Amino acid sequence: MDEDALAEELRRSIGELVRAVRTVDTMPPGEAAILGFLDRGGPLTTAELARLRGVTHQSAAKSVKDLSADGLIHGEQHPEDGRKLLLHLTDAGRSRLQRERATRAGALGATIRETFDPDEKQRLGEAVALLSRLTARLTGN
Q: What pLDDT, on the 0 to 100 scale, is given for residue 122?
């Protein structure tokens, strides 16, 4: 298999895996993504979240409104531009995100245990390291 065919097969397979794992999610993907960005990157504006998610400002603003109403994030005046809100993850938001991640990991872990023998698990671990290297190269990290 040449590199381009491998790349397409990898893209398709990872996409299917991500969609399969998301079936256990208990919150909308956009909201989970916002919590994840705030957890990893610290406080952000709605515009920054929209850019990171690749959605319109209006779409991000709706998710921000819903998350705020649920007490999962809160906004405070931006220290450099009072017209903007800097959004922070609350303790409740961090707890909810941890539960979502644990649910996903639990479902995937159970499937790994049921599907693979010890040698295959070892190879899967090696593949994860390769995928991490590939991701770092693509993102410049």
A: 97
